[in-house]
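Late entry, evening session. Most of the bench is empty. Finally got around to the prediction I had been postponing all week. Sequence below, unchanged from the version circulated by S.P.
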Amino acid sequence: MATGDFDVHYVAHLARLKLCPEEERQISDQMGDILGYIEKLKEVDVSGVEPTAHPFPLVNVTRPDVSRPSLPHEDALRNAPQKAGGLFTVPKIVE
């Protein structure tokens, strides 16, 4: 998409935004700058760069999955505002 092909009025309409003419001009200028910068980035040779999803490796920090005793049933229900049949009762939110 070339810089001049960006239609701020059309995109604002799709986003249900009401922009005054000054805001449209300002956003159009800003988007023109952004799209121009993207065109400049397309000129960079990245043939030797391996694609990545993140700039740094991500590692999940997890604890070992060890079985251990849980909270006693009576303790879990002790402060329940409502309970019935040994279970928490909650208001119905879905018909």
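Two things to note before I forget:
The radius of gyration is 28 Å.
The mean pLDDT is 88.
Will write this up properly tomorrow.
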